[in-house]
Write a structure and sequence with these properties.
It contains eight helices and nine strands. The protein is of the alpha/beta class and 332 residues long. A hairpin with a 4-residue loop joins β4 and β5. α3 packs across α4 and α7 crosses α8.
Length: 332
């Protein structure tokens, strides 16, 4: 049984515990919650899902992500039941107002290099194995970055990844259309190879059971309009959200390690935007990476990404070895 508040020693002053909207769980406590959920992934399948530099094995999947897939399956079922109750209240006649078949939307947020992409891919693979919701789609917010020409015209190339570098209206409209049950919704496609939107290419999503939206700023609240009125934000469409957390110094180390590996692999491609960093010494290339972290990625994390952590349903906290140490689940 998980205790929400530990009792002070006998005779100690009994201070009122700090109020928190979260249940804090150790890795062992969380792992026990998977019950008898089977492990549907093989080591070979996990290898394909793992991000470059992300240390994860089947034990991590079993201890952390199986319980999460079980929790999400329960959330999906409970949300369907709640929607059914709402439809009954509205006199569900199949007319406007009915929420029958509404996709369940999950947001996954966190810093560059923290491993959120691996978490999102793992959730897609695990959730699609549940018979109740086989159609699970994953969309990253990279496709909604403004094209390079537009970023350059606005003087935003050094702010790429910051909230203002995205077409936030198009991203919110995309998720809103899926949530509304449209038969087919499309999104732009981003290429990490050319570091830009791919002209004329679109990703098509067709009525998923579950949609996972992964990106740096997916938990950002909506900005007020020019008239001062509050707008509907992307996170307002989420049924569940995950924030992948770690110490800033650990994330920086993971970022630099990933850059080294990319320099040896993807950057070698003649079409790569970053190929120039394979033509200089490793130290020169790493100086660029350190500068990018110090001037772009770290400020974005501190100013924009980390402040949204408290908006998540679940916070996954990683240790220096990329292993999850603790989790915080929002109470209902």
């Amino acid at each position: 049984m998980i205790s929400l508040v530990s009792s002070p020693p006998r005779g100690a002053n009994r201070h009122k515990p700090e109020a928190t909207p979260y249940v804090d769980l150790t890795r062992a406590e969380w792992s026990a919650l998977r019950e008898k959920t089977p492990l549907p992934l093989t080591a070979a399948e996990l290898e394909k899902l793992r991000g470059l530099g992300d240390v994860i094995d089947l034990d991590e999947v079993r201890d952390i992500y199986l319980p999460l897939s079980r929790l999400l399956n329960l959330y999906v079922g409970a949300t369907d039941g709640l929607r059914g109750a709402l439809n009954t209240f509205l006199g569900d006649t199949g007319e406007k107002g009915s929420q029958s078949g509404t996709p369940f939307v999950i947001g996954v947020a966190g810093s560059v290099a923290v491993g959120k992409s691996t978490v999102a891919r793992l959730l897609q693979a695990l959730l699609s194995r549940w018979p109740e919701h086989p159609r699970v789609e994953l969309v990253t917010t990279d496709g909604f970055l403004l094209p390079t020409k537009e970023l350059q015209a606005r003087g935003l190339m050094s702010r790429k990844g910051f909230p203002e570098s995205y077409d936030r209206r198009a991203l919110t409209r995309f998720v809103a259309d899926i949530k509304a049950g449209k038969d087919e919704v499309t999104a732009p496609v981003y290429s990490h190879l050319i570091y830009d939107i791919v002209p004329g290419e679109r990703l098509t999503v067709r009525r998923p059971d579950i949609l996972i939206v992964e990106g740096l700023n997916v938990l950002q609240p909506a900005l007020p309009g020019k008239d001062g009125r509050t707008r509907v934000g992307l996170a307002d469409y989420f049924d569940f959200s995950v924030y992948v957390d770690a110490r800033t110094e650990d994330i920086e180390r993971w970022y630099l390690n990933r850059f080294r590996k990319l320099r040896e692999t993807a950057f070698q491609n003649p079409s790569s935007y970053f190929r120039k960093y394979t033509q200089v010494s490793e130290e020169e290339a790493l100086d660029y990476a350190r500068t990018t972290w110090r001037t772009i990625n770290k400020p974005n994390l501190v100013e924009n990404v980390a402040p949204t952590r408290g908006r998540a349903t679940l916070i996954i906290r990683k240790g220096p070895d990329h292993k999850v140490r603790r989790l915080s689940l929002r109470k209902l």
